[in-house]
Amino acid sequence: MDTGIRGKTALVCAASKGLGRACARALAREGVSLTICARGTSALETTATEIRAEFGVEVRTVAADLSTPDGRAAALAACPDPDILINNNGGPPLGDFRKLTREDWLRAIDMNMLTPIELIKATIDGMVARRFGRIVNITSGTVKAPMPQFELSNGARAGLTGFVSAVARQVVQHNVTINNLLPGLFNTDRVASAFPAIAKSRGVSTEQVIADRLKNIPAGRLGDAAELGNACAFLCSAQAGYITGQNLLLDGGAYPGLL
Ligand code: NAP
After folding, report:
1. Model pLDDT for residues 145-184, shown as the tens digit of each residue
2. Are 64 and 70 in contact (CB under 8 A)?
3. Chain CA centroid to CA 12, Å
């Protein structure tokens, strides 16, 4: 399928690794020029070099913390009028909700709710004026099925989801859509690095922790980041203009509900 977005520009947040990187790669494959951001320069430049070599598109890099006003300003200076915005960020820490401080909450809300909202605010009017825009927020399966220990994520991402729902319906008449991708368990650095720590705290092997998690995933495996990237590219396609305000769960069938 020709997704019809060759020559468009995308700002892809938190894209040196994992799910953000997979979205950047999938968009580059469709001929989209990229600005990709992350805090560290090493993985960011490696990802940019690989994408340029593989797909032949322009890739700008911005090394910045997107949770800060200066970081967002740097990203928007490099890509002031994106046709496509992929909102992504690091995830908040897990832990007992009783131990979470006000500062923990403010940081999580800043990272996973207010940062994407600020980037949407800064870019959406240009999309409306050009009569094309695609915004995809990477949130989490915990939006549909909140999990214990994930309270910072549960709360902040629910806030973003509520904001997006009403805004999406205000701009779709201008061919600007906003949708959320809800990953279940994907095989990224973040997840791979969490397993040994969980294993240590439970006194079991890493293999045991992974086997236990897979019991709850009907697909019987972790997700591949490229699968989420491909879903992202489709939501950004010309053909997806009638899909907006949706929460697309990619979890190998783990969520058991009908809707
Ligand atoms: P990952 O493999 O650790 O990659 C995270 C990326 O975000 C890296 O490129 C990282 O680069 C960048 N980043 C982190 N904080 C940033 C910041 N403040 N400003 C700019 N860039 C930043 O993580 P992932 O697994 O792809 O997860 C991405 C998001 O999806 C997270 O919010 C996570 O909670 C959520 N999620 C993931 C899964 C999963 O199974 N993987 C499931 C549910 C939800 P630097 O460190 O260099 O900045």
Report:
1. 999 999 999 999 999 999 999 999 999 999 999 999 999 9
2. yes
3. 9
CA distance 177 to 170: 9
Cα of 210 from ligand 1 centre, angstroms:
20
pTM above 0.90, yes or no: yes
Residue 60 and residue 79 in contact, taking contact as beta carbons nearer than 8 Å: yes
d(CA 28, CA 59) in angstroms, rounded, equals 9
Per-residue CA distances from 97 to 92, 145, 195 (Å): 12, 17, 21
Ligand 1 binding pocket includes 17 (Cβ within 6 Å): yes
> Ligand 1 centroid to 38 CA: how many Å?
9
The burial class, CB within 10 Å (0-12 / 13-18 / 19+), for 159 is: middle
39 CB-contact burial (10 Å; exposed 0-12 / middle 13-18 / buried 19+):
middle
Q: Whose CA is nearest to atom 2 of ligand 1?
A: 18
The alpha carbon of residue 93 and the mean position of all alpha carbons in its chain are separated, in whole angstroms, by 16
3-state class (DSSP) for residue 195: helix
189 C-alpha to center of ligand 1: Å?
Answer: 9
CA 115, 40, 141, 3 dihedral sign is positive
Whole-number Å distance, alpha carbon 212 to ligand 1 midpoint, is: 23
Q: Is 41 in the pocket of ligand 1 (CB under 6 A)?
A: no
What's CA 106's distance to the chain center, in Å? 20
